[in-house]
Amino acid sequence: MKFPSALVVKRSRSGLLGLLAILALPLLVRGANPPDAPTVILIENATILTVSHGSIEHGSILIRNGKIAEVGASIIAPKDAQVFDAAGQYVIPGIIDCHSHIAVDGSVNEGSISVSSMVNIADVLNPDDIDIYRDLAGGVTVANVLHGSANSIGGQTVVIKLRWGQPASKLPFEGAVPGIKFALGENPKRSNFSIPGQTPRYPATRMGVEETIRTTFAEARDYKKTWDDYDKRVASGDKNAIPPRRDLRLDPLVEVLEGKRYVHAHCYREDEILMLLRVAKEFGFKVRTLQHVLEGYKVADEIAAAGTGASTFSDWWAYKVEAYDAIPYNAALMTRRGVIVSINSDDAEEATHLNQEAAKTMKYGGLTHDEALKLVTLNPAMQLGIDKRVGSIDVGKDADLVIYNHDPLSAYAVVQKTLIDGRVYFDRQRDIAEREPREKEKKALMEKEKKAEEKKPAERKPGEKKPGEEKPKDKPKPPQASAVLGGAQ
Amino acid sequence: MKGVKIALRVVLAFVAAFCISHNPSAQSQPSSSYAITHAKIFTLAGAPIEDGTLVIRDGKVAAVGANVEVPPGAQVIDAKGLQVYPGLFDPITQMGLSEISAVNATVDTSETGAFNPDVVAATAVSPSSEHIPVTRAAGITEVLAVPDSGGFDGGGSRGVIGGQASAIHLAGWTINDMLIKKTVAMVVVWPEIRTRTFDFATFSRREKPFGEAKQEYEKQVNELADYLEAARHYAQAMGHGGPSDFQRDVKLEALAPVVRGQLPALVFADSARDIRNAVEFCEKQKLKMILAGGEEAYKVKDLLRSKGIPVILRPTLSLPPEEDDPYDRLLSQPAELASAGVKFAFGSFDNSFARRLGQQAANAVAYGLPYDQALKAVTVYPAEIFGLADQLGTIETGKVADIIVTNGDPLELTTEVKYLFIKGQRTSLDNRHLRLYEKYLNRPKPGN
Fold first, then answer.
1. pTM: predicted TM-score of the whole model, two decimal places
2. In chain A, what residues touch B326 (CB-CB under 8 Å)?
3. Rounded distance, CA A134 to CA A143, Å?
């Protein structure tokens, strides 16, 4: 069950399926064409949960040029508007997943060293990952795509919009502050990943994790000083100044010190949470979010005092020792102590029902409907510094909206449409209507492939399947824990 | 000195009270009778009873109805505004067998080797597992502890015959209190054709040609057939000849009820091909089959219906098995199976996610499954599938009183369980999570 991080190429609770999906010949790429350019859209007769200023019964939202142009009880449809009658339906701002590993081509972990700040998830975005579409169908519009957690200081991260059908270059959330993943505890100390016969990687303790981060930031501070000195000399007209050698590992950490890059730190236990807050204070940077932070409820006051956000699970627990004190009341307890809290997925499947996961905080800890909904909309937007653009239904914000057939904080709610920038990227009715033609198209293509193979049997490579032979479809079912233990989380 | 003694006595009393109220498996009161009055009672054996009364006595349902007298001496629970249901039944878990899945020392789910018909889940169920009170607080009153059932808490590699699944109540001082039935099914993990494997010796992925993988699969299936054949011979020999000329084999003995078709084989298979192969195999071997997993059961629904094979469905909250499957493949499958007449129950296949059982069922309703079918698929259907419906699954006179009293739909995310009865005993809803919540809710502000 101890799967090496390198093996967990793609994170999902169904383990290696994601990997197989990548390796499998994609027969069809769903939604290969992005939806049409934004027009004027009017959503009317809906229950609008604005998140920022209460709810509106039988309300309307006017969308123009991808932005929310008007929100109110009654809006007269402009002539050119496409009108969605949402009678009996609910509209919420697009769900923001503050911890995701979708749309990543290959492994999420550069796990060979404990400081891998030189690598960047933004370099390996895969716009064809089917999980983008699946999460979109679960109402997710924005995802904080993170590097894995095998490293004390991990790789650089990127915030994306789930613009399914667009090329990789169109996925990043324009202007969002880039991030970097840190990780504390069992994963960076490789507790669950010992490789037989191999010397354990440093650090192997929580003490060593602190030391690794401190030593690296000491280096980063010195490095920054060499550049600051150089810049000063150049500014004072020194033509003989020699620029310091660029260090791709330290550059992003200098950005952290300058507040230009957010730290998203994977953590579990109260002691390691306080450790990181101390180290951050020592070096003068902010931890933007604590990720998972399953014991955050034990030190909620300290987290609130540090002005740090907390992004946690709804009810995961006991998959490893540091998750044994995890409680489903975590989000509510931290909220009550003044921490800005979000509920994240860390998993492509979990992301498809973050609305439901948020709802659980009403039961566990008594958050209000509004507070619960904020956990997956406005709060993660604030944590990612994109709340001017998204996170609530307000005039001027991006038209990232989800339409449900029921109250979204119910297990019976189904997403009907998901809009990003005013474009309908997911439409349940359209999806259902397209199933039959797609199935036909798939069959036809397979038939064609089969015929093509029958024509040239000589070219078949050894080990390749014979024409007509059933397609090998192995589906190893590793324990779901591989998702969590794989170090991605 | 006297003062010290009194103080000590107070402390001891306090400690004792604490132990009683916090013992995870405590059935805090001795056997007695209860009357739950003014509740809306969903018996699942007929129409719901508005303003009904449920009388529990000696661990059993003594009476239920609209005009039932409260017997003298019964503890009365006025459940006005509340709803009564049979407790939920999770038919595939690793309850008590696994505590912290990453820590081997706490995991007793899967034996080594391919054939372990003689291992019994009940043997290794820890009544003190923190998972038990956490799970029952979600309204789950009974589960199957299933060896070799995979899952988040399921441990690593799997054999072919995994052992005996045990049905247990989620309360009891010892396994003897908890046990419903020691053996309800024999776990069979249907071999898969695996072309991609992971080699732990070299720590690398290995690719195998399909032909080779298929040969290995056939070898495993043949070995399984041989093993069952041996068990069949053994079963025939049992009872013949004297004790001196009969060499006992506990493994084959454990399989005897399986090959006689008395004990069902709980066969784990997911792809349509694997399910078809498993069904064909079980038919040939004359095994009584229950399918577990069934990700692609919808593709073979007619086969499953015609053979009368029930299914324990893997969580609906799962991604589709194939990239080009509809995104809601597993969410809409229960509705499809129900309308095809296939009998199924929902299972968590897990411990720490067992409390999502109701959510799983509700999500299937959201995608077309009739509500009453969803409710039955987490109560009476699993009881029926494992031959326990004479005792469990509905609220009927004479049945074991595993009962929940809720403030709403037990499948909905926000519904709270207000009272819980296991074997007719009012059972604590306290659990590790609630304790930690209350402790840290009251943490004083840290000093400067």
1. 0.90
2. 431-432, 435
3. 13
Q: At residue B185, does pLDDT exceed 60?
A: yes
∠ at Cα B356 (A147, B420), nearest 5°? Answer: 145
Output the CA torsion sign for B296, B297, B302, B307. Answer: positive
pLDDT of residue B200: 55
State the smallest CA–CA distance between residue A220 and chain B in angstroms: 31
Spatial distance between the Cα atoms of B32 and B34, rounded to a whole number of angstroms: 7
Q: What is the CA radius of gyration of chain A?
A: 24
Are the C-beta atoms of residues A67 and A396 closer than 8 Å to each other?
A: yes
Q: How far apart are the first and last CA of chain B?
A: 39
A474 touches chain B (CB under 8 A): yes
- Specify the pLDDT at position A458: 56
Q: How confident is the model over B33-81, as pLDDT tens digits?
A: 999 999 999 999 999 999 999 999 999 999 999 999 999 999 999 999 9
Phi, psi values for residue A153, rounded to 5°: -120, 110
pLDDT-based confidence at B448, cuts 50/70/90? low
Contact with chain B for residue A376, Cβ under 8 A = no
Is residue B272 within 8 Å of B182, Cβ to Cβ?
no
Scored b (16 or more CB within 10 A) or e, B412-436 reads bbbbbbebbbbbbbbbbbbbbbbeb
Summarize the confidence of residues B411-418 as an average pLDDT: 98
Q: Is A16 an 8 Å CB contact of chain B? A: yes
Q: Give residue-wise pLDDT tens across range A151-172.
A: 999 999 999 999 999 999 999 9
d(CA B312, CA B267): 10
Asked whether the beta carbons of residue A329 and residue B352 sit closer than 8 angstroms, the reply is no
The answer for residues whose C-beta is within 8 angstroms of residue A446's C-beta and 6 or more apart is A27
- Provide the ipTM: 0.91
The whole-angstrom separation of Cα A76 and Cα A85 is 13
8 Å CB contact of B437 and A320: no
**Cα–Cα distance for residue pair B306/B152, rounded to 1 Å:** 33
Q: What is the pLDDT averaged over residues A204-209? A: 96
Output phi, psi for A140, to 5 deg: -80, 130
Separation of alpha carbons B378 and A488, rounded Å: 33
